[in-house]
Specification:
The chain is α/β, with parallel strands linked by helices. It is built from nine helices and six strands, in the order βαααααβαβαβαββα. It has two domains: about 140 residues, HAD superfamily/HAD-like (Rossmann fold, 3-Layer(aba) Sandwich), CATH 3.40.50.1000; about 70 residues, Putative phosphatase, domain 2 (DNA polymerase, domain 1, Orthogonal Bundle). Helices cover about 40% and strands about 10% of the residues. The protein has a six-stranded parallel beta sheet, sandwiched between helices. This is Hexitol phosphatase HxpB.
Length: about 220
């Protein structure tokens, strides 16, 4: 029986993936790494330190420290979120639907608290979550299940009684490794990716979350 629903954030609640790509492309160019959006997809769902480490291993640089690159990307992303960020389709409806079931509601993100706070401020939904937790507090980010296991612990709910809503494959892997049920809501370009079969269900948008879906996933 599902007792709690845990939302991812980037690419699920806020349309931040294009903003992440823009920030990464802009900042990595400063260390002579030329990225294109499809290359940014290789690190989707990872923590920012893991993103920077990924590209540093491929193309080492010496102009800036890895920490400086991380901070520059985060600062650029927050600037973009506050000026251009927008909610994805069905966000308010999905949150209200979950609340109508008298479930505990949490957010578990790979993003840092600085980014989470900016996004929730922009969407004005911070008060909708009992627990807001970042993988920056974990030894490892997604696809490691730590962020989900800790969130479940903070909610006081067994992971097996949690439903995770995710848009990235790394996020789905993390949720399933935590033994949670998981609905994947990938961006349309990834909708037919067979790797999402590891999830319990794949939807096109949060707007599709209704009683029929709920009864199926909660059976």
């Amino acid at each position: 029986m599902i007792e709690a629903v845990i939302f991812d954030m980037d690419g699920l609640l806020i349309d931040s993936e294009p903003l992440w790509q823009q920030a990464e492309i802009t900042i990595f160019k400063q260390v002579d790494i030329i990225l294109i959006p499809s290359m940014c997809m290789q690190t989707k769902g990872l923590r920012i330190d893991e993103v920077v480490e990924y590209w540093y291993k491929k193309y080492p640089w010496d102009k800036l420290s890895k920490k400086q690159v991380e901070e520059a990307i985060v600062d650029k992303l927050i600037e973009l979120i506050l000026t251009e960020g927008k909610a994805l389709v069905g966000v308010s409806e999905a949150i209200n639907f979950v609340k109508s079931k008298n479930l505990k509601v949490a957010l578990a993100s790979s993003s840092s608290y600085k980014i989470i706070n900016a996004a929730l401020q922009k969407l004005d939904i911070a008060d909708d979550f009992e627990i807001i937790y970042s993988a920056e507090s974990e030894a490892l980010g997604k696809p490691h299940p730590g962020v989900y296991l800790t969130t479940a612990e903070k909610l006081g709910v067994s992971p097996q009684n949690c439903l995770a809503l995710e848009d990235s494959l790394n996020g789905v892997l993390a949720a399933k490794a935590a033994q949670m049920k998981c609905i994947a809501i990938p961006e349309m370009s990834e909708y037919h990716n067979p790797k999402f079969a590891i999830s319990d269900m794949v939807l096109e948008s949060l707007e599709q979350l209704d009683d029929n879906i709920w009864d199926f996933i909660n059976s």
